[in-house]
Amino acid sequence: MDDISDIIKLLATPKDIAIITHRNPDGDALGSSLGLQIFLEKLGHAVKVVLPSEFPNTFLFMPKVSEAVIYDLTQDRALETLRNAEIIFCLDFNGLDRIDKMGIEISESKAKKILIDHHLDPEPFADYTLSETTASSTCELIHVFMDELGMLDKMDRDIAECLMVGLITDTGSFRYATSPRCYAVASSLKAAGADDYTLNDLIHNTLTEKQLRLLGHCLNNRLEVIPEYATGIIALTKEDYHTFKIGRGDTEGVVNYILMLKGIKAAAFMREQPTIIKMSFRSKGDISVADIARNHFNGGGHKNAAGGAAYAKLSDIVKRFKEVLPNYIEKQKL
Fold first, then answer.
1. Distance from the CA of 48 to the CA of which of 36, 68, 197, 233 falls in 20 to 30 A?
2. What is the pLDDT of residues 57-74, one digit of tens each?
3. Using CA atoms, how far apart are residues 164 and 161, in angstroms rounded to an integer?
4. pLDDT one-digit tens code per residue, 125-146
């Protein structure tokens, strides 16, 4: 973090603070935002979380999540919150395009902007930046931020559980993207009262019947395996969206099931939406799906977890993905 002493002074007196995160917020985006909100409120600040879009119902159990201002639903209230803010915390995104129309408002805001994020190549729009690509999650960095402020004594169970949600979701329940510090942070959160068992249950074991049947359809009818490149692809069509009445959050985590196949090293999950194709990529080891997303699908992300989007036919996107695979994955010996 640049000039932590300046931030300590900035936070020394009560301020109006807005916390924003990326569109389609996941567990890390929500956990870091809500955990930081509770922490800052304990310091006497007036804090509001502003989300570009709605969040999956899976996370309705999180404290204060129902208080979040959602730009897509209440644009005027969201803009008023941002314009009144003296400080804006930008969490879990590296560029203003990740917050859609709110990006213009943030770029023109005179508020002090603090970016805390773990994605590659953060844009230089913030006054202060805490960016570590080796961090498991932005929630891990919120813990680091509180430590650098010398205020870990403010940690309570609600903050700890919010931050633990981000650690659980961004590491796949501590299966990847971990480090000694990640486990040390998890230990600190558990010591503060975070119930990781219950949180895992709330996050992973609350599928609806529709979601479970959709998962079965994805694996039985839409999975294509390319063994020579140790890759699996699932592509959902507009018809699938209509048949299963797919809504926000219904396809969360589907891409990870592809990597459960023995020998599979890369996975692509493509969704044909009304005007755009959305893509999620996952990989193991040294295969960089971030490079695939950035170089070919207008996206980016982490080495082993990335996303992209394109205005094209679903069949063309699948074809393009297959064509570029040899550039990133060596042909496997069968």
1. 197
2. 899 999 999 999 999 999
3. 5
4. 999 999 999 999 999 999 999 9
pTM of the model: 0.89
Could you confirm whether domain 209-327 is CATH 3.10.310.30? yes
SS3 content of the chain, % helix, strand, coil (to 5): 45, 20, 35
The DSSP output letter for 332 is P
d(CA 321, CA 324): 5
Place of tokens 């979601």: 211
Beta strands in 84-236 (DSSP E): 87-91, 112-117, 128-131, 223-226, 231-236
Contact assessment for residue 145 and residue 1, using Cβ atoms and an 8 Å cutoff: yes
CATH 3.90.1640.10 fits 4-204, yes or no: yes
Nearest to 209 by CA among 201, 199, 217, 221: 217
Break the chain into its structural domains and give their ranges: 4-204, 209-327
